[in-house]
Amino acid sequence: METHLASWIKSTPDGEVAEAILRRCVHCGFCTATCPTYQLLGDELDGPRGRIYLIKQVLEGESATRATQTHLDRCLTCRNCETTCPSGVEYGHLLDIGRKIVEQQVSRPLPQKLLRTTLRETLTRSWIFTPAMRIGQQLRPVLPAVLRAKVPVPRPAGLLPTAMQLEEHQRRVLLPIGCVQPAMLPSIDAATIRVLHRLGIRGETLAAAGCCGAIRHHLGDERGALQQARRNIDAWWPRLEQAEAIVLNASGCSVTVKDYAHLLRNDPAYAERAAAVAARTRDLSEWLPTLVLEFLGRQANPPGVKEAVVFHPPCTLQHGQQVRGQVEKLLLAFGARIQPVAEGHLCCGSAGTYAITQAELAEALRKRKLGHLLAGSPDTILSANIGCITHLQAGTEVPVRHWIEWVDAQLATLGATASPR
Ligand code: SF4
Ligand code: SF4
Asked: Ligand 1 pocket, 209 CB below 6 A?
């Protein structure tokens, strides 16, 4: 696509990135067909090609309007369009630049400003969010339905291996503990640590680091997001040498940490370490299944689970990281009956804070997704990201869990022989 960027952006780092991305787009529109918001709203400007066009207009000097901002706000950042695009257009990075510029040009109505500030400042601070979630969980039965839907039923985390048991393992990985997951479903981190322990790997938790930066990034607070990324790099760096990898069990976080190299590329003090951290980062869903499969292969009595399950691959996993199929392969090895799911490429509507800032669209997408997930009456829905898990669970009585919780429970039934040294 031919571009004529305005002089105020053209030779800036953002301008150069945007121009390179825009030039790859041939305006074919293949991406539009797989865009969830286009499918719901049927408006070209609520699809990737239309949004690319809107961003191009702004970068070429046209003033952004509230309508421009609304069309960009409605994007889920699911990056389904990147998977579909035959020209390799990095839509996500272009959207980040477009949103940032539009935010500078267009003032939001006060209620939106208040909501976005509240989300940014509370979700990313565990000393505020954790006690608030505890209170919410205690009051859950009497909460209004709209609030109850945001508060998951607590699941016991279960017993953890002792520090002494973990010290025995030669192999270790860093396990950054995120901002909202430990408060909402601590069972996910506990299951991860237990499964790693069974495999003879020490999962070294890094509670001090905090949020990966995704929440601030998606709410337009670029400075805050970069500060969080720098804090994490400082916290992880001294321990990185002894670890095989940085492993994250929420795909919304792993996709962000893998992007640190891009986000901090212009920061001379951090660019090199950011690139190294990104290169060493793995999502649990890409890193662990092979190890569990090898472990199962060594068992005298392989498991024969009879459960019917469906797996919902988060967009941040299948589109953001192009990781597909590993978890399903593992579930099959346990004997699970995996049911096929129509429209598996489409977003469930969670998308970080989207379920709050764009509640109606998020609800419509959840309804559509649950319709497909529940079509074969599965016993359990499994996924790989805290946001998707809690969002989907709010719309169904069928249990929705992280796949690592399910694997942890299955391995526990194998008994003591399952613990190697
Ligand atoms: S982003 Fe890719 S698929 Fe979409 S219009 Fe541009 S070239 Fe075509
Ligand atoms: S990121 Fe998702 S919602 Fe946004 S334009 Fe691409 S496909 Fe559509």
From this structure: no
The residue whose C-alpha atom lies closest to atom 6 belonging to ligand 1 is 25
Q: Is the CB of 87 under 6 A from ligand 1?
A: yes
Position 207 scores a pLDDT of: 63
Nearest CA to ligand 2 atom 8: 35
What 3-state class would DSSP assign to 175? strand
Query: pLDDT tens digit string along 11-22?
Result: 999 999 999 999
Find out whether the beta carbon of 81 lies less than 6 Å from any atom of ligand 2: yes
Number of domains in the chain: 2
CA of 153 to the centre of ligand 1 (A): 42
Q: What is the mean pLDDT of residues 270-274?
A: 98
- Going by alpha carbons, the residue nearest to atom 7 of ligand 1 is 25
**Mean pLDDT score of the chain:** 93
Q: Helices 284-297 and 186-198 sit at what angle, rounded to 10 degrees?
A: 40
Tell whether the model's pLDDT for residue 417 goes beyond 80. no
| Pocket-testing residue among 37, 99, 361, ligand 2, by greatest number of atoms within 8 A of Cβ | 37
| Ligand 2 nearest-atom number relative to CA 31 | 7
Instruction: Assign residue 340 the CATH number of its domain.
Output: 3.40.50.1860
DSSP E strands in 335-384: the ranges are: 337-338, 380-383
CA nearest neighbour of 356 among 394, 318, 396, 399:
394
Give me the CATH number covering residue 51: 1.10.1060.10
pLDDT tens string 152-177: 988 889 999 999 999 999 999 999 98
- DSSP for 244-270, please give it: S-EEES-HHHHHHHTTHHHHTTT-TTT
